[in-house]
Amino acid sequence: MTETKASRHTVWRPAVTLLVMGSFLAGCAARPAMTGLPPSPNSRLYAYLIAHGMARGAVMTGQIGPEGLPQLVALDKAAQQATVHALKLQSSSANRQADQALFSLLADLPQKTSPTPTNPSEQTQKNRLP
């Protein structure tokens, strides 16, 4: 090898190595933009439909009597309007209002607690298939 070729290798090899290592480290330090799927713009609509079905089920099973119906209807109507408003605007304030209205509707529904059997063998008998 001649003196000129040797000096080129001496200059270029560290430069290329530095460039490759710098690119590798930059790739390691870079943060991914997003993992998973972005939320659907219709997710609040789906949440409202589920909450509305839960409210309807509570009325049909007698968990909410005639005295609780006016408040439930008002909360359901407010949640419906807030959800439609959030779908139209797609803004963070409208989304927060829809979330709050849905929370109020769900909070008004009675929480069903499963009765615990006094005798553990009674639960075992219920779980058996015929």
UniProtKB/TrEMBL annotation:
Residues 111-130 have a biased composition (Polar residues). Residues 104-130 are annotated as: Disordered. This is Lipoprotein. It comes from Gluconobacter sphaericus NBRC 12467.
